[in-house]
Amino acid sequence: MGVHALFAQRLSIQQQVARIDSLILYRNFEAGEKQLDHLYDSIIQSGSRHELRESELRLLLNKAYLYKENKKESNALKAALDVIEAAEKLHFFEIEYEACLMAALVYELSNEFDLCKTYLGRAHRLYKQQHLESLYSHYCIRVSSYYRFVKQKDTALYFATQGFNYARVYKNKRDYLDGCLLLGILLPKHDLEGAVKYASLAAYGFLELNDYYRASSMYNNIAHKYLLRGDNDKARQYNDSALWIFNNNALPANFQSFKIRYLLFDTLGKVDSAYYYFRKYHDAYVAANDSIKAANIKKVTEQYENDKKQAIIKSKDRQLAFIILLLLVIATASFLLIRKNRKINIQNKVIRKQVEELMKMLEQKQVLLSELQHRVKNNLQHVISILELQKESVNFNNIDELIRGNQNRIHSMALLHKKLNVSEHVNEVDLEKYILDLSELVKDSYDTPRKKISMDVTCTIAQMSIEKALPVGLIIVELVSNSMKHAFVKRHTGTIHITLGQDIATGKNILYYADNGRGFDFNKHSEKGLGMEIIKGLIGQLDATAKSSPGNGFELTLHFK
């Protein structure tokens, strides 16, 4: 046979295999099996069997699936083991992987969990070695089912979630529905909404595939979860749906539906109806499981008869328990009421204490307000003194400069009181914020677009009393004003440094001021400028020692307590 003819034959067979897969997926087993047998015989009898071995093994794997669906587990296992052996020799790793999972499924159905685990492990090794990501969902579903039966629910839930996610990514419909089925079963009781969601998705999907048995089982599973929650109405609705599917699709007797029914009526206290469905449940269970012996049925029936006789006794016990519970609730409520009253009394004592403290604080605030008014009066006296000093220097040439200087001095006092107003301590000011704001305010009052004077201010003293903060602020106002007016007359750029800190050795405060302007000697300055007189007067008020370093620019260091 030519290469082109062989390629065409292989393509035709692959298309037929895909069609058989679809028939099996949609539960059309009769047509699927018929086409499968016909195609399988054609491959066996063809002269190109060796070239078509992969398709032959896939058909045999589908045959194993059909055997399993028809309850012929031994035939399914033999077919799966034959595929594993042949696929291993021919290095058809995907087929070997899927056959291992089929063998694991058959062993799981036969309760041979050790052998099931062996083939699951073999499949996992193939997945790791061959990177079979697109088929990983199938492994996750099978291993989740295994862990479910060996009572490792958390691990089963983890792999069910993995299987669902991988199936959704790689569009593996059968694994997607099996993932929904497992999640609907395995999700914890408190996640009823999630369990119902996935079980419903599984039911809808199974109905689309004509898998009415599994769809009905999903509705029964949802009904059972609502029954455990105590929602009898919803439990009955889903159980009705399950029975409707069975009754309208000529399916074998469904013992699960009858079991839910009898549990539902038993919960409702309808003993006769519960017993009726209990008998139907056992009849259906016997029909579906030939291994159940008559003695076991008799034993279960007798047990149920005894339960029926004890129903009235249990009802009375429940009434007695309800009365006891009611008395406990009344006693608990009385205890809680007494405890609440005690708590209220304690809270009232705390409130009274807080009111007393607030009254004391109000008295303190009134005292502090009087002190603040006294401070304002003293500061106004400072302003008056400065204005008196200016009488001799006033002329029409520098009136604007005098007004701006006085504005800056008054701003320094106003800013100081503003800082005091937002502080809890009326006699102390946040020094760093005060100095930063004040120096920027004075600089901005002299700034012009042509000059770019930068300001570097550092303050490591957290708070200072108003008696010291006011003269310190006024000194800075005068120094910055002098720098802005005189130091940078012939320059467009410059830097002013202001540092306030504390000498650790002496415990004294240090004010350091410097600019890189044209400079002047503070100690030898003979002009009768008002600013210099104010600075020296304020230095005296602080009882500070002054040190100036002549040279490039201007430097002044003050030490004060």
From TrEMBL:
Its EC number is 2.7.13.3. Residues 371-446 form the Signal transduction histidine kinase subgroup 2 dimerisation and phosphoacceptor domain. Keywords: ATP-binding, Kinase, Membrane, Nucleotide-binding, Phosphoprotein, Transferase, Transmembrane, Transmembrane helix. It catalyses: ATP + protein L-histidine = ADP + protein N-phospho-L-histidine. It comes from the Bacteria. Residues 471-560 form the Histidine kinase/HSP90-like ATPase domain. The chain crosses the membrane at residues 320-338. InterPro entries: HATPase_C_sf, HATPase_dom, Sig_transdc_His_kin_sub2_dim/P, TPR-like_helical_dom_sf, TPR_rpt. One of its GO terms (molecular function) is protein histidine kinase activity. The keyword Protein biosynthesis does not apply. The keyword Isomerase does not apply. SMART domains: TPR. This is histidine kinase. It comes from Taibaiella chishuiensis.
